[in-house]
UniProtKB/TrEMBL annotation:
It comes from Cryptosporangium aurantiacum. This is Transcriptional regulator, HxlR family. The keyword Transcription regulation applies. It holds the Pfam family HxlR. Residues 11-109 form the HTH hxlR-type domain.
């Protein structure tokens, strides 16, 4: 850590910000919480990050013991970045900050995008495990070209990119999904105004809003 980036305080928060508080650092961590990524995968998921900044942040996070590189045999010499155990400990921090920030989202700004990794983490962030005890349900959430498979089973969530093989409910939505999860509109209103479309039992959309809430 360079002296210019140091806060000059013997404090856990200050030290944590020195490691993960630089611009883009926590978004890199967010994507790696979904799973290991190649450099090109990270670049695709963060299209506005300058390549030199991405390289610098990865180097800094690696030096801090947050990220490690693995060389895969196939394709030959392919490098994959993943979180260390120390880096994975940032998950509750990322989830708490994401949940807090979601309350200020409002409508999407011009040119803001949604990525599969950001949506997977959004669903993990908003999942209310205490409301899912004894519940088993499969959702497929579609937002434009993105499809996510969300399986809830007795208080646990498994979220992954791609369609569900046997969804109990398919939800097609755009930015209206945020208003729905924030309870600014009811499931019935969202379906009626066409901002959300469902295939399956519409009552499961009410359950979705109970399980995933901002």
């Amino acid at each position: 850590m360079t002296q210019q980036r140091a806060y000059g305080q013997f404090c856990g928060l200050a030290r944590g910000l020195e490691i993960a508080g630089e611009r883009w650092a926590l978004l890199i961590v967010r994507d790696l919480l979904v799973g290991p990524r190649r450099y090109t995968d990270l670049r695709r998921g963060l299209p506005r990050i300058p390549t030199n900044i991405l390289a610098a942040r990865l180097k800094e996070l690696e030096a801090a013991g947050v990220v490690e590189r693995t060389v895969l045999p196939r394709p030959a010499g392919s490098v994959v970045y993943r979180l260390t155990e120390y880096g994975a400990d940032l998950e509750p921090v990322v989830i708490a900050l994401s949940r807090w920030g979601a309350r200020a989202l409002g409508e999407p700004r011009e040119e803001e995008i949604v990525t599969p990794a950001s949506m997977i983490m959004a669903m993990r962030t908003t999942f209310r495990a205490e409301r899912a005890e004894g519940v088993t349900v499969d959702y497929e959430l579609r937002m434009g070209e993105i499809a996510l498979h969300l399986r809830v089973e007795d208080g646990a969530l498994a979220a992954a990119e791609g369609p569900s093989p046997e969804p109990d409910l398919v939800i097609e939505a755009g930015p209206a999904i945020r208003a729905l999860m924030a309870r600014e509109v009811t499931p019935k209103e969202a379906i009626a105004d066409g901002s959300v479309a469902v295939t399956g039992d519409p009552a499961l959309l009410d359950r979705f809003v109970e399980l995933f809430a901002i």
